[in-house]
Amino acid sequence: MSKILFGVLKTGRLIIRKYIVIKRSQEHELEVSKFNSSIYARQTRMRRRRCLVLLLVCCSVFAVSQSSAECNDVSFSTPASKLDGLKRVTRLSVSGHISAYHVKVSVSDDDFQLVRLANGNPLVLYSTLSNTPSWTHVDFLASEVRIQPAFEQAPEDVRGPLLILTICDYDTSITAFDDSSYTVESHQAGLVSMYENDLCVVFRTYRSGVFFFSMADQGDVLIAQIIHGTVHVIFDFGSLTPSRISAGKALDDGRWHEIRWLHQFDSVQLSIDGVLLNQTAPTGLYRKLDLHSVVHIGGRPADDFSQGIETTFTGCIARLQLNNADLLAFAPNEVHSQCQMPKPPSFTLHNASRAVLPFTFLPFSYEFRIIPTKGPLVTLLDADNGTLVDVLVDENMKLNLASNITKFRQAANPSIEVSNGAWHSFSLRIRGVRMEIDIDGYTVLWLEGHEVRRISQRLSNFVISASGCYRSATIDLTSVRVDGNVSRGECTFQEKCLPNPCENGGECVQSALDDHVCNCREGYKGKNCHTTDLPHSCEEWVFTKGNKQRAVKGRKVLIDIDGGGEMQPINVTCKMERDEMGVDGVTTILEHDLARPMIVTGDNKPGAVRHSLTYGISTDQMDRLVEGFETCSQFMRYTCRGGARLMTQGDERSPSSWYSTRSDKHGLQWGEAPPYSRMCSCAINGSCLHNRMCNCDSGEDATDEGVNPYSQLLPVTGLFLGGTTKSSSIEVEIGALKCRNRATFDSVTFSDRNAKLSGTQTFSQRTFDVALHVKFSHSQMSILSWHSTDDLHWFHLYVNDGKIIGEVVNGGESQQIVSDHRYDDGNFHAIYWEADSNGMLLKVDGVRKSIKASFVLPTAYSWIVGSRTEKGSTGFAGVIRNVYLCGVELALGQYARKETEKGVSLGDDGYCRPDLCQNGGKCIDKYDGYVCDCSMTPFGGSDCSKEYGMMVPMGSTIQIPWQNPAHQAMCHRIAIQTASKNTSILRSKALFADSTFNMTVDKNGYLQMMAYDGFFFHYKRHSKNHNLSDDVMHDISFCASKHHFNVTVDGMQVITIEGNWTFFESFNVWHFLDENFEGCVSRIQTGSAFPLKNPKTARLNYSGKIRFGTCPVEALSRHQMYDFNPSPGVKTTTAEASTENIKIFSVSQNRQALVSKAIVGGGILAMSLFILCMSSLICYMRSRPEGVYKTNETGENCSPSRSEEPLVHNINNNANMYASSKEYFC
Known about the structure:
Layout: H1 2-24, H2 26-33, H3 37-68, E1 71-76, E2 80-95, E3 99-106, E4 112-114, E5 124-127, E6 136-149, E7 162-169, E8 175-178, E9 182-185, H4 186-189, E10 196-204, E11 209-215, E12 220-227, E13 230-237, E14 243-247, E15 257-264, E16 267-272, E17 275-280, E18 294-297, E19 314-322, E20 325-326, E21 346-349, E22 354-358, E23 364-370, E24 375-381, E25 387-393, E26 399-403, E27 409-411, E28 424-431, E29 434-439, E30 442-448, H5 450-458, E31 461-464, E32 468-471, E33 481-483, E34 486-488, E35 507-512, E36 515-519, E37 524-525, E38 531-532, H6 538-543, H7 547-550, E39 555-559, E40 570-578, E41 584-590, E42 598-601, E43 609-612, H8 619-627, E44 629-641, E45 658-660, E46 666-667, E47 702-708, E48 718-721, E49 729-742, E50 748-750, E51 756-760, E52 768-776, E53 780-787, E54 794-800, E55 803-810, E56 813-822, E57 829-836, E58 839-844, E59 847-852, E60 862-866, E61 878-885, E62 888-890, H9 892-898, E63 904-906, E64 922-925, E65 930-933, E66 949-952, E67 957-960, E68 971-978, E69 983-989, E70 996-1001, E71 1007-1012, ...
Antiparallel strand pairs: 1-7, 2-6, 2-7, 3-4, 3-5, 3-6, 8-19, 9-18, 10-15, 10-19, 11-12, 11-18, 12-13, 13-14, 15-16, 16-17, 19-20, 21-32, 21-34, 22-31, 22-33, 23-28, 23-32, 24-25, 24-31, 25-26, 26-27, 28-29, 29-30, 35-36, 37-38, 39-40, 40-41, 41-49, 42-49, 43-48, 44-47, 44-49, 45-46, 45-48, ...
């Protein structure tokens, strides 16, 4: 009883809603019909009475139906669920491990078909471990439901998924029609006039026929039929101009199909098997469907004016409902019968396959469905396998007949397209001297004469070789001889072009039984014509390398503001211009067709002269273009002569001229004046003539001009001019639309990897894509994610090891595409990522990478830029801009303005400042911090201030015997601190040439250089600007180019030589200093190598008692470094003295003490040597020292377990010297 009451209330609400719709549309109908007020009142009362009666009738009918249509939930622990008869399924849910499933249903005879969504994608059910079912709402009939994994290699669920269904009783039996029909009285079935109508038919057939027929006396028509496998619905709401909507292909295949015709006032849609294939708008003024008092099911009455409409139907119908009225329930008892449709023998020929059928009798008849490829359809062979006749499809997909006997060739007449994927009939017969070939019942090919007799006498076999499906009721196709890949007893033809998967006007062609190709329009590419190389905006075009210079003068550019979306590209002019504030920026210019000013003369009433401005784009494109910019403007000029007025015309003082906007509103202002103010630009600063609101309201010859800055009024789409007389005239000029600062191109900086920006956008398309510009320096982080409401399925764009990765996670499965190169270099990069059911494409800075795989795209809802978890520093740190998510602009700058949390800011502003990294180090902005890159300098440390040097005593040698060719360059550097004179700083030569280069300190302490190019020229120069032997650090740099050589000392250029210096790059042998040098050397740079910082990489060899340290040093410190056995009794001589000449003396008091001390000292020395050897061995085994100088800055170079001895002593006896500032040799 509760269900009955619920049904009554639900139906009541439905009728009341319909009544409200009727009442709201009365004014429109009465205006069209020109009814007077008395008729209106009378009709209103009559409608109210009819609605009340209808409410009672429908409530009773609905209550009776509801009492029998009980619904309940059932569950199945197996993927296949066999129901107790035919049921109506309204909800689905799957419980189990996280996975994704497709759904197949069968109405009868185990004929399973995939359930699809309105966009053509298969329905996907996601299983969860939750105890609460996640319902997916559906509406179909089924006697059995199956689920199968959506992925080819889905993990096996040991427990198996639990399928939960909500099913409702469906008591109407499947009705078989054999050229029979019946009628239903409309009032008995509860059918009334409606503004919204829904016709649903579930059927199976092999022939053409009519399902539903109603032709009312007042002209309303509704007819649903199938002709040659295509459904046609003819409808008319009383305008006497019937409309037709068609959809589907090869629906006469004997399988169950569902058609749904949906009318919603101004919209009519036609869906086949749940997929929306066609939609249109009704013609005429009427929108209410009035049915005939008697409607026909499975046929129509015989008449002479219903040409093109089938008369009967042969097949089975399982469901036929109009506005929820079950019309099959009214079928007479004698019509109800078991649906028995014999399935004719069939097979499928795959590519390069054929079937050979022996000639037994004529006519030779079958039905076929082939793909559009050039080749033979049927070949007639003799006993020796010689070709007699070919019936083939030419390159234009037209049918031809070619005789091999007479070489005669004939084109089909009438021409029938047989390779369109629909079922066609073929029949060949020979009667005497005439051979005829019929296609779909029409004789299109024939031969006559004695040639036909020879063919009939020699005919032995028929060969079918076109790729496609074949069936016949007269030929046993199950036992024919076949070659190649053939599927017997079934048709595996999968229609891939309905709905059309090709976007942006692409043409779909079925290229194989299970595949298609798209013939894309110019500018588009990819499997489904979704990919485009066109820029989204002028800003993006200018960002492309090489375009910035072109934009200075302006360049015509074709932009696609929604990427691969439905909107067509737009022709604009991109130009670099300076605004009023002196800031250079990109201007997007959209021009119209009014190239010259418009002049109006003569007697004209206000707004009488009209002119439309054409921009070559639609209103939707205008909205998308203008609304995406921060500012748009358009120049306007109005010149009046002879007393013409602009805003105060006549006694009413109303505007004489105005313009229209893109939203069809009237613009009643001119220039910068406020919208709808009836003023001009001069009124803003009070400069109008005679204190009027416009110069042209003064009655004098004047001009009102200005720039209209109000985006809501732009662009100007039409002019309404007038207010002139025989003695007056006006001249109007409208400039091009100019827009600046595309909102989506605003840069947003993320300085906290726990920050995020988020929003919502639903994804349910066939193709996913995202385009953006980013720059970053971290090697691992998340950029953008787009996930489902339950966070179990998502798209994810992130960085790992510096590479860009696009990941699709759906139903527990993950698919990835990874870039081949690293992009964590702190520069902007343009990223485009696309995914569809066939694979993925990743394009970074124009470099493409694609993978082909079977995909199931998730249904996403919430997008996040930055951290998904807001913890763990896994989010984004860098700058991002120009984000397009499935063609929709994400103006992140607007989101950043609203963001109150720290870590996200508008603009491109990182951590790096000019003074953070010293000595030429490069500051790498991490945006949540910074790092100094010292790799291209001879310095080190966190800020590139750390010196790498060595203390060089006399007699030492330092050299690079053969420089790595990768390190050779034209610039070099060395810094020295010495008191030595007449000594060499460096000597270099080419290993395979005679060129040399020497740099020395002469006897007076000045710099001297000599060079020889190996052929003719010797160079020798002195510099007396600096005394290099003053025991002060001096930094010497020298660079050569093709025509110059320069030497700088301490930043001052001291030597410049012109000439051919290309030989300088060939130097690859380097000797530093000589045996007379004593002092400290640092900052050695040979090309791109830094020998003191990376001795092994630079192939540095050295000998002598050299100690690595830091320059500059004081003289005392340097002497201590050379004194390895200091003693109070030793007196050090000059700095030039060699440490080898230092001797230690001791005074012996008596011999016994000396011998005892010698024995003890010898033992201690031996033990010390043993300990030293063992320590050295352990240190060597652990660290394998290579003579590389290391520090304890980070604590990572020396383990606490190793022996540590400072090389630079605390000269100043500073007890607070930090361990991190000490230097060690491990």
